[in-house]
Amino acid sequence: MRTSRTRLTLWFTLLPLLACHGPALSNTPVPEDVLVTANRLTENALALPLAWSIVDREALALVDAIHINEIMQRVPGAWISRGNGQESLISLRSPVLTGAGGCGAFLTAADGISLRAPGFCNINQLFDANFEQAGRIEVLRGPSTALFGSNAMHGVINVISAPPSTQLDNRLSVEGGPYEYIRGKYRYSDTVGRHGISFNANVTHDGGYKKSSGYDQQKVTLRHDYDGNDWNIRSVLDGANLDQNTAGYIQGFNAYKDGDIKKENPNPEAYRKPWSLRFYTAASTSLDERNTLVVTPYLRANEMKFLMHFLPWQPTEKNDHSSIGLRAHINTDADSLRWINGVDLEYTDASLRETQQEPFSPNMPVGIHYDYTVDATVAAAYTQLRTQFDSNWELDGGVRVEYTKYDYDNHATDGSACGPDADNCRFYRPADRDDNFTEWSLNAGVSYNLHEDHVTYFRVARGYRAPQAAELYRLQSGQQSADLDPEKLDNIELGFRGYLQDRFHYDLAVYYMNKDDVIFQDADRQNVSGAKTRHYGVELGLDYQISEHWSAAVDANTASHTYDSRVLLLGGGSRDIKGNDIDTSPNIFGSARLGWDFSAIAGRPSKAELEWVYMDSYYLEPQNEHRYNGHSLFNLRITADLTTRLSAGLRITNLLDEDYAERADFGFGNYRYFVGQPRGAYVQLNYQFGDI
């Protein structure tokens, strides 16, 4: 395995050197990297001292993803581990984090507004976003700027809605694939006078590769832009619904390679039924020549019911929350600086109920395990400044102070959920209580223009997350209260990015991070704070236009994520695990792509792409005694215009028909796998209505 890592690292290192032996570079202008996520401003991000990535609309159309992990393979340091159907777990400059609060380490957003309320994350929350028809996806890696608070610790994934087109865009697409897969997408977009409208909707049916699995999904995004004399207003309504028959893990060492059991579903009764709805209006007006006021009220509603098939006693959970929020900030744009000062306010009403239908044991009884509501209030103030004087230097920094309060109300009997026969009840309901947290974050960076279109930067930043409600109030084994502290992550990084004219783009980031007050479940199943972890790595992105018709790209990282304190972690046994790799943290993963534009041959716009996806081996539990060996996959994508109105696409996934696991795990004494699908071909037809 070390040999394969060495070869891969060498290959990534040599690629830019080999690229330099390609054709001579032209003198055409360098493209501008436009980013909106970092500071809620449209800005050139080349010199921004921050690690960021953009998946643009062209790439989104080519990938035409069924699951968002297909897109995030184009972001160095990011891995969305796919469960069954539309389920996922996030790794962003981190291990894949699980548990009640693991998802709180990442801020997932649509147009900058969190998909779920702070404190009420869900590990699968990315299925709430309409990434299938997004305008672009922007990713910030590592602790974010002061404009984002709790949860923006390991990074931000921001799915940005497609803006209205300047001319009529009225199109329908239909695609089909294996296992009864069919998806329809519709887009209508136009601008008339001061008003622009964009309507995107998609409907999907997937019969499922495994027995008694599959899903039906619907998403819609409606956007209206108004360009007025005094006010510019953008309003977006975004909704998603999923009805999924979930296939559970298959068990046994390397079971994903066994043709007799890889299509089996040990949990045919499992399901997941979430829906989400978000609405916001962003209104901006000029106060004077330098200052602009932006006010963004928003509403959010989520509900999900699912069978917890990954637990042997299989309870059912229903959770929901509704939020109302307001973001307001003033942008100051002077000659040598851009300064943002603002406040964020949000109120959330949430509930959770867990019940068990079938008897299992006295310690996991039939009936209500948890039934509570939480009213949450978040208030924050921040300032972020970016300066560029008449020199090669640029400074960027900010600070944020955030207050979070939870008002918890237990609707079941206080204390144990078990009867007198239980000797170690799994579920404990704390009495009504209030909890509040005040935390701050800061970031400071400097960039230096080494040469035209070549920049180096240095950055330090602190991120944090408040404890999630489930960590505070969903207790076990007689724990009467959980006095938890916010997690904190300190990051230091050095980066280089730039262009060799418009043919070769590189982006390199080296980082070191320490996380303190990590919330974990100890060997006694108590939710406690105090663990430490250490993270360091190198992230690399390369894009090279080899010739007029050929291009190549690499997005990869090598990293180490380890336990850095002496703790007895649940699943770690009685042995101290300090220095061990955190489970599900491969040292190397990434993708490489070779693109071919064969428009000249076809006579119409046409492209092809061959993609290699590499996943290194990783440990499956804290003791580092069980391992998944990793995999390599190849995918082929082809798109072509057949007429002025009709275009087609072909995608072949897992081209070499590799046996692999989308996710590997070790729990309850068994190897467990979510199986990757075998080779599959997907065909798409797109038709453009109206005048061309």
From TrEMBL:
Top-rank lineage group of the source organism: Bacteria
Xref: SUPFAM superfamilies: Porins
InterPro entries: Beta-barrel_TonB (IPR000531), Beta-barrel_TonB_sf (IPR036942), Plug_dom (IPR012910), Plug_dom_sf (IPR037066), TonB-dep_rcpt-like (IPR039426)
Lineage of origin: Bacteria, Pseudomonadati, Pseudomonadota, Gammaproteobacteria, Cellvibrionales
Subcellular location: Cell outer membrane
Domain TonB-dependent receptor-like beta-barrel residues, every copy: 178-655
Membrane topology qualifier: Multi-pass membrane protein
Identification of the protein by name: TonB-dependent receptor
Residue span(s) of domain TonB-dependent receptor plug: 48-156
Organism: Candidatus Marimicrobium litorale
